[in-house]
Amino acid sequence: MTKPHILLVDDDERLRDLLCKFLVENGFFVSTAREAAHARELMNIFIFDLMILDVMMPEEDGFSLTEFIRKGPVRLKDVPVLLLTAMGETEDRITGLSRGADDYLSKPFDPRELLLRIQAILRRSQNTNEGTILSLGLVTYDLQLNRLERQGNPISLTTVESSLLKIFARYRGKALTREDLTAEYDGDLNPRTIDVQITRLRKKIEEDPKIPRYLQTVRGKGYILLSDA
Known about the structure:
By secondary structure, this protein is an alpha/beta fold.
């Protein structure tokens, strides 16, 4: 099983190193950043399962960074955020949660409590993303196995089609731009070829590819995958 990848952002080097060591010892893969600008660079490179952000940082605080994540590209929007801060006032907690944070832990804290908070957030996140088999009319798609079938008969997919369908399934119900798809694709993909790939996918999953029910175009936003279940 792949270790959850956590982004830890804190300008306190000593605390950052201690927490990193603690989380690694407890089964996580951890990337660290000293401030928001560094964190943004890492977000462009990696896909994280959870982000732990300090609130009081130079240049840009954790509240602002949380808001950026929630309003950012689709691959960031749903990543859980846990805020760490020395500010324990009710108003500060409300500010953090209203900006899109999933939880809030005031300093100083026991690392064991942080671990329990992380585990609870990841459980909730996992439950939200449950349902790996999608029903697309007569077609089913198993996200975990990356397998497409029509009434039990396998449908062959090219490498590009397979990767794009997996991305759509992962973000089902959300409109994805060509740029989103290119960013999520593991390899080289020219945005100009995406429309061609969509046409090919529709021929494999739609009853009538000219009037798509499941892989639809969202005017001005890109494409969206809908499912019956």
